[in-house]
Amino acid sequence: MSTFADINLPQSLAQRLIQAGLTTPTPVQQAAIPLALKGQDIMAQAKTGSGKTLAFLLPIIEQVMRREASAPAPGPYTKSGPSHASGPKFLVLAPTRELALQIEMELRKYAPISVTSLSVYGGTPIERHYRALQRPPMVMVGTPGRLLDLAGSGHLKLGGVTFLVMDEADQLLDRGFLPDIQRIIRLLPAERQTLLFSATFSGEIQTLAQSMQRNPARISVDPGISTPTTIVHAYYVVPGDQARTQLVHTLLQTVGGGRSMVFCDQKYKVRRLAAHLGGEPASVGALTGNHSQVQRERTLGAFRAGRLRSLVATDVAARGLDIQDVAQVIHYELPTNPNSYVHRTGRTGRAEKEGATFLILSQSEEREYLRMVRQLRIETKKLALPVFVTLPSPAPMPVSEQQAPRHRPRRSAEPSGRRFREGENRGSVHRQGASVGGPRRPRY
Length: 444
Ligand code: ADP
Ligand code: MG
Hints:
The protein has helices spanning 11-19, 27-37, 52-70, 97-110, 126-132, 144-152, 169-172, 178-187, 203-210, 241-252, 267-276, 293-305, 338-345, 363-375, 414-422; strands at 42-45, 90-93, 117-120, 139-142, 163-167, 193-198, 217-220, 231-237, 259-263, 284-287, 310-313, 326-331, 355-361, 380-382. By secondary structure, the protein is of the alpha/beta class. It has two domains: 4-68 and 81-220, P-loop containing nucleotide triphosphate hydrolases (Rossmann fold), CATH 3.40.50; 231-396, P-loop containing nucleotide triphosphate hydrolases (Rossmann fold). Helix 2 packs parallel to helix 3 and helix 3 (52-70) crosses helix 4 (97-110). Residues 77-83 and 408-442 have low confidence and may be disordered. Adenosine-5'-diphosphate (ADP) binds at residues 22, 24-26, 29, 46, 48-54, 322, 350-351.
């Protein structure tokens, strides 16, 4: 079995990984890291929780360390070695704010302090980013909207980027984000290395991605498998919404000290369900794009730290988030598409751990669900409804949020709407045409 040192990572970095308990590279790391170190473009598909983040972060850290080793020693007036005044050399794009932050935190865990980094995303005061960029980092991680705002106002120079990563690349290249991604790519040098990672890539996205890469190496670990086999899939059929809520509550009581995530399609359902489950006093948090960024980070922090045992969320939490010990993922209703099912479910069963996912379906959703699992090559089983545990008293909720919206949100309005909800573009005068988009994207 190969080690991190065998795949040409510097000894000190391999040592740091071992100290953190990572002894052996995962299959996607074994496949991608040597190619990335050779300068190759990569499109890598590997199931959720299989270590894709380090598959792109370790080559970044290695490259910076190598450059430092070959650069002249810092002069008396330079604080930390070579100057990066021209802008970052490494750019990592992520579709959600929490994921951008998580990726940078992961980098900080393993990189020496000389590898400077910054994560930027909407919902935080842009002036803070202006100030941070007065001394540009080597590695930038960010969501597309905020990066474009910073580039548009001249605070961020992207002309020196020689290494681009798109994490959750299929979502970034989907129509909601595509115009922003194309704008970012136009700001980058053509001479660069481009790496794409996701658990899911459609043929259409692969073709599109080719126009942004040079002869990429295609990596597919377990082709066609996007969901870890350590996850048990099962479903219930319920007679109505009251039973859905009671069943969620009952399932939340079954996991002992473990954490649970519950996904709903729409924001008002998240808020309503979290309130019916007793809200924060009952250790249940809610996360949607309507919450302020401060609230979002506080809720996710409390969930990661175990102060909240359950998190009810929209798809804003479906991609990339790596939270320890999520014992089960509950789908409050049938996810709108197989990718959503794969990514939501992938919050459990990470790094070869066991996990479980439960779908709560109406009679009419059952057939479509069975088609979805066949397509995903997943085995599932139907479970009999348990005896329901009595619901706690509901948490108070503003009157305006107790009702469903009178009209279902227009899905075609999602991309521009999402930006404003995420606060990425607010006040931006640099971009036009933000309303280009398609009808299939979920609202967060
Ligand atoms: P993905 O992006 O493929 O969904 P992540 O990169 O978030 O997965 O990694 C999932 C988990 O696996 C993280 O907690 C990470 O620390 C852990 N991990 C990554 N690489 C290794 C490794 N080589 N050995 C053990 N655990 C690892
Ligand atoms: Mg990931």
